[in-house]
Amino acid sequence: TDITALETLADGTIYLGDVGNVAQEITISGDITMTNAGVTTIANNAVTYGKMQAVSTTSKLLGSSDAANPVTEITLGTGLSMTGTTLNATINTFANPTATIGLTATNGVATTAMRSDAAPALSQAIIPTWTGAHTFSALGTFNAGITVTGGAINLNNDATANDVNIGTSTNTGTVTIGGTAAQTIDIGSGAAAKTVTLGSDNTTSTTTIEAGSGGLDLGASAVAKTITIGNTTGATAVNIKAGTGTSTFETTGAGTLVIGGAASTGALTLGSSSNTQTVNIGTGAAAATVNIATGDAAGDVIIGDNTGSASSSVQINGATTINGAFNLCIDNSVGGNDTYTATNTTITTLVPGLVILFSPLTNNNFACTLNLNGTGALAITIQDGSDPANNDLQANGYQFLVYTGTTWMLISTF
């Protein structure tokens, strides 16, 4: 039939021949619809898997790299496979971590995987630069020391009552505080009362405090304080040495310098070395008052050495006041006139030049002797070596005698 001979056609319909070969007006339906402009649309879910193009070979997936590209075949990558309609993913074996955590990334080349509960070790060879503040709640051990550049190390800087131990190991080692540059090292400088102990009191340790060519100041602040060197209970020896320099004990203000406390019973020795020394007491340019053994208790003051083969030279310049007995020797003889004996425990050895103040119990009758401390009876003579005159030694009087090495020389009587 000529198309021009066809009658009008309803909107959106087409002519389709039927089984009798007669054109029928129909509307397309089912999986496809069509507009009057001839545009067809496939219905959703109308194309089944069986209606799709078969893939070129096995183990292929369909997909696209982006929305603008058509669907295409995707080749399975390494570790992926297909069994029938199942996609399989294969990974390599698990292994424990072998690398350590350092300061830089480690890319690695192993094809094994790390388990979810595994963790690599932290390298002990790293030297990190800490840019933030760190708090160590547990006790830390720094075997190779701690180095700080441009900052401060605060040990036990919180408010809790904790101990800070430096160098408390039982191993032999050296604890060094401070370097070669000019530094200020404060130990126990806080405002609270504290006890700072240097050195050990239960071993034969030696504690040395050096000042180089500078000064060593103990208690240099203006606050009133007591500085104790040594103790009062143990057998402590305190040595203050100046080498080739000078050890000076002084008070810059109207203070009092006390050496040897009132409650002490020990010996205070100045200049006891076997080397030649000069011990100066009160030798400054200003007027000074030097008090030696001025306490209320009876004491012995020994100036000079009377234990060697030669007597020391003692020089006293200016007016000198001596209170108490001066090498006082009281006669305790029982044998009668002219054979005197006496005891003075402060005189341990007779050396030439030794001066004593002797008080006899009786007057002498010309020649007489003195036995001091059981050293033997020696003649008492006058300066020319002859015997003293009768009654030169007065009973209960006081006479100065000088030991000459062989005799006692009478130099004055009063």
Overall description:
- The protein has strands at residues 14-17, 23-26, 32-34, 40-42, 60-63, 72-75, 80-83, 86-89, 100-101, 121-122, 328-330, 339-342, 355-359, 369-372, 377-381, 399-403, 408-413.
- The strands form 6 sheets. Strands 11-13-16-17-15-14-12 form a 7-stranded mixed β-sheet, with no helix packed on it. Strands 1-2 form a two-stranded antiparallel sheet.
- It is rod-shaped and about 190 Å long.
- The chain has no helices and 17 strands.
- By secondary structure, it is mostly beta strands.
What level of helicity do the residues show? under 10%
Helix count equals 0
For this structure, the quaternary state is single chain
Portion in strands = 15-25%
Spans of at least 5 consecutive residues whose pLDDT stays below 50 are none
Summarize the biggest pleated sheet: 7 strands, mixed
Tally the beta strands: 17
Order of helices and strands: EEEEEEEEEEEEEEEEE
Alpha carbon gap, first and last residue: 183 Å
Give me the Rg, rounded: 56 Å
Silhouette: rod-shaped
**Main β-sheet, spatial strand arrangement:** 11-13-16-17-15-14-12
